[in-house]
Automatic annotation (TrEMBL):
Keyword Lipid metabolism applies: no
Localization per Swiss-Prot or TrEMBL: Membrane
Species this protein is from: Nicotiana tabacum (Common tobacco)
PROSITE patterns with a match to the protein in the record: MFS (PS50850), SUGAR_TRANSPORT_1 (PS00216), SUGAR_TRANSPORT_2 (PS00217)
Domain Major facilitator superfamily (MFS) profile as annotated: residue spans: 26-476
Name this polypeptide is given: Hexose carrier protein HEX6
């Protein structure tokens, strides 16, 4: 068996096993879906700040930016067609995730990851070759279908493959991969902006094919998770052999028994989207909506989508704006990596609360500085632009520690097997819906609210931090198949699920 870090057997509900090299390699390959997602996020903000790209596809925006001296700094990029280029990906992802739910449940997590990679490839090719705005947006739609499948399957895959003691760190590798994708996109944008002839944006869009190819090829060799296998086969020995392989031990009977019980329960659920509405699943349903909603109204997409545009708004040049986006991307990766190392020790709630406070304070400061120093015309001094950049980096650090990775981790670990695929689809769909709404409306909001947009998102950060403090229980180190206990022991949720789970309590204690 592959070597790894030992997991203590049956301590506080832990199963026997190790964090094997087999699991690490499989999860690294699966997390490549996060690289593509991050690349798609980062690339759009960069190319939409490139003058040759704007001149070819969005000439009105180009004219306002270069020639119209009467337009406010905050309104130069306000174009519904321009935001449609960015947000069309998320509309497609919203609808694709519901199809992905059925595919993930019926054919396995691996099948959804493979389909996601194939759609990424097609979208990247179309975007790089685009000669009109419709071809450009259709390429983004195909990328969105790929994102819908990958984001539905990859977090589930990571949580189901990982030993519970290390699940937080391994699942956070998805957000780390997203951050790596954003950074790669920003670096490529910074380089291609300097290409003579004005065709560098084509390289930026087409380069999404590289991680897409790796994901598609790698998905062919990925093992299926035991949780998925047990849903789709009656061969218990096959599931047991897979468990032994990924846990690095022959003693997997306790985990196998829980998987069998969960599988038998899941087979009684014919309509998971209908059943998730039942009272006993109320906490999971609330979290599947609240967590992705809050993740988007942190305002992170102000940075992720439009960082170069935002930096150009405060008066930085094209190259300086793209380079600033590289800096914020690097900060996001570093702090997400830190989150991976401490999330299973510190816990989910502590990181979310600490990160929320950090994001709230920095958003208030950025909004205040832009209100005081940036008018409708001209820019800010280099010194104040640097201060704003530092504050935005601190904000990104707060997100990288908390809501970035944990917004994907927590929903992927709280659903029982019988509603897991449906619950993850709701999470991804809500995420895409509000990503679309924020992406589509941000430039208009920036134009109308001006610096007040940071106060708007800051208020949401305050609300969500209070929500975590009162309503989110700690889930660290608890096996997925025993996660129901956190709701039965929570001061609020036990009033809703306590009686409904009386039988389950006896079975699991």
């Amino acid at each position: 068996m592959a070597g790894g870090l030992a997991v203590v057997a049956n301590e506080d509900g832990q199963y026997n096993g190790k964090l094997t090299s087999f699991v690490i390699l499989a999860c690294m390959m699966a997390a490549m879906g996060g690289v593509i997602f991050g690349y798609d996020i980062g690339i759009s903000g960069g190319v939409t700040s490139m003058e040759p790209f704007l001149k070819k596809f969005f000439h009105d925006v180009y004219t306002k930016m270069k020639e119209d001296k009467e337009v406010s700094n905050y309104c130069k990029f306000d174009s519904q067609l321009l935001t449609s280029f960015t947000s069309s990906l998320y509309v497609a992802g919203f609808f694709a995730t519901f199809i992905a739910s059925s595919v993930t449940k019926t054919f396995g997590r691996k099948a959804s990851i493979l389909l996601g990679g194939a759609n990424f490839l097609a979208g990247a090719a179309l975007g790089g070759a685009a000669f009109n705005v419709y071809m450009l947006i259709f390429g983004r739609v195909l990328l969105g279908v790929g994102v819908g499948f990958a984001n539905q399957a990859v977090p589930l895959y990571l949580s189901e493959m990982a030993p519970s003691k290390y699940r937080g760190g391994i699942n956070n590798s998805f957000q780390l991969s997203v951050g790596i994708g954003v950074l790669i996109a920003n670096l490529i944008n910074y380089g291609t902006e300097k290409v003579k002839g004005g065709w560098g944006w084509r390289v930026s869009l087409a380069m999404a094919a590289v991680p897409a190819f790796i994901l598609t090829l790698g998905a062919l060799f990925l093992p299926e998770t035991p949780n998925s296998l047990i849903q789709r086969t009656k061969d218990r020995e096959k599931v047991k052999r897979m468990l032994q392989r990924i846990r690095g031990t022959d003693d997997v009977q306790a985990e196998l028994d829980d998987l069998i019980v969960a599988s038998e329960t899941s087979k009684t659920i014919k309509h998971p989207f209908k059943n998730i509405l039942q009272r006993k699943y109320r906490p999971q349903l609330v979290m599947s909506v609240a967590i992705p909603f809050f993740q988007q109204v942190t305002g992170i997409n102000v940075i992720a989508f439009y960082a170069p545009i935002l930096f150009r708004t405060i008066g930085l040049g094209e190259s300086a704006a793209l380079l600033s986006a590289v800096v914020t991307g690097a900060v996001g990766i570093a702090t997400t990596a830190m989150s991976m190392l401490i999330v299973d020790k510190v816990g989910r709630r502590g990181l979310l609360i600490f990160g929320g406070i950090q994001m709230f304070v920095t958003q208030m400061l950025v909004g205040g500085l832009m209100g005081a120093k940036l008018g409708d015309h001209g820019g800010v001094s280099k010194a104040w632009a640097f201060v704003i950049l530092v504050l935005i980096c601190i904000y990104v650090a707060g997100f990288g520690l908390s809501w970035g990775p944990l917004g994907w981790l927590i929903p992927s670990e709280i659903f029982p097997l019988e509603i897991r695929s449906a619950g993850q689809s709701i999470t991804v769909a809500v995420n895409f819906l509000f990503t679309f709404l924020v992406g589509q409306t941000f430039l208009a909001m920036l134009c109308h609210l001006k610096f007040g947009i940071f106060f708007f998102f800051g208020a949401w950060v305050a609300i969500m931090t209070a929500f975590v403090y009162w309503f989110l229980p700690e889930t660290k180190n608890l096996p997925i198949e025993k996660m129901d206990r956190v709701w039965r022991e929570h001061w609020f949720w036990k009033r809703i699920v306590g009686e409904n789970n009386e039988v389950i309590i006896k079975e699991t204690t």
